[in-house]
Amino acid sequence: MAMVILVWIVAVILALIALLVHMWREAHLHHIVSEEVEVPNLPSSFDGSKILYVSDIHKRMLKKNDLEHLRNQVDWVIIGGDVAEKGISWHIVRHNMSLLSYIAPAFTVYGNHDKRAGTVHLERIFRDTGVHLLQDSTAYLRKGESKLCLIGMDYRSRRGDSLLAELDTKDCKIAIVHDPLEALHLNAPVDLILSGHTHGGQLVIPGFGPVFLNKAYRSVSSGWFSLKKDDNDTEQEGKMLVSRGYGTNHLPFRLCCPAEMHMITLRMLSNKQP
Predict the structure, then answer these.
(1) What share of the chain is helix, strand, coil (3-state, %, to 5)?
(2) pTM recorded for the entire structure
(3) Where do the coiled-coil regions begin and end (predicted)?
(4) Distance between CA 17 and CA 29 in Å, rounded?
(5) Cys bridge to 254: 26, 48, 121, 145, which one at CB 3.0-4.6 A?
(6) Closest CA to 139 of 107, 111, 166
(7) Cα 110 from Cα 177, distance rounded (Å)
């Protein structure tokens, strides 16, 4: 009997070790999800343009060998916030921002952990590495004589709708909003929103869902979502991507929720293509 119990204990310990190894690997995967998205109001010259989108890097260090081949393969790099966290080595952040801005012109917003880490240090790093911080501000991306507007909304900002109201209604608008719930509270139409913050729940049990994710976020934990308020909403045609993120928060583990970044190809609406 004692031997049977011992065998069971050893089996459980080995299973737990195997699970932890698997969770650590999920958290440290380098996985780029390639996808195309139809964007309302996208100028024809932007059709086929590529964005490398990465969010919630936290304290994970990007590897040069994983990303340097993307130089000249993407048009812009967009970073969805939380490039840092409290107590991080600033060397890691500087390395990550330098690598991303080397690939293509890079734009970012603040996430909640960035604010806690210290914006004075972050602003200096962004400036030194050439990453454009959009803090309740806009930038225009250009292809030939056409342009689209990139809007970066500060974390917990209440200026989103007023920022959008200042723009030409005919402009194609892409917004970076770290928190997807903030994005859903916008009233003005947006063509594409890039978000993160949730980590996809980070630890997800099949059949149950995210273990620690706040209930308010469960309906937008990760993936693509329509921005329509309801079935009768005819003004809003846009979509929102909520990334699972590339780093981790608190524990360096993921379960059924692997780390990801995104290669997004912008496409005109099918019914508007020539």
Answers:
(1) 35, 25, 45
(2) 0.95
(3) none
(4) 18
(5) 26
(6) 107
(7) 9
Structural tokens at position 251:
């524990």
Beta carbons of 42 and 267 less than 8 angstroms apart: yes
User: 179 near 197, Cβ under 8 Å?
Assistant: yes
Alpha-carbon span 93 to 112, nearest angstrom: 16
One-letter amino acid identity for 20?
L
Residue 49 has which token pair?
């343009």
The two structure tokens encoding residue 211: 């273990």
Q: HSE on the CB side for 227, CA within 13 Å?
A: 27
Helix (H) or strand (E) segment spanning residue 116: helix 112-117
**Residue 195 parent element (H or E):** strand 192-195
The C-alpha atoms of residue 213 and residue 200 are separated, in whole angstroms, by 8
pLDDT (tens digit, 9 = 90+) per residue, 150-188?
A: 999 999 998 999 999 999 888 999 999 999 999 999 999
